[in-house]
Amino acid sequence: FEHHALNQNDEIVGKCRRMAMMHKRPV
User: Fold this and answer.
1) What are phi and psi of 5, to 5 degrees?
2) What are the backbone angles phi and psi of residue 26, rounded to the nearest 5°?
3) What is the pTM of this model?
4) Which pLDDT tens digit goes with each residue over 6-19?
5) Whole-angstrom Cα distance, residue 8 to residue 5?
6) H or E element: which one contains 2?
């Protein structure tokens, strides 16, 4: 369970970071 939760959290963090990067990109 712990490992699974950690993996899920890492995935969510990666998505958030990707979204932030896209938003920060200059248009």
Assistant:
1) -60, -45
2) -70, 135
3) 0.50
4) 778 888 999 989 98
5) 5
6) helix 2-24
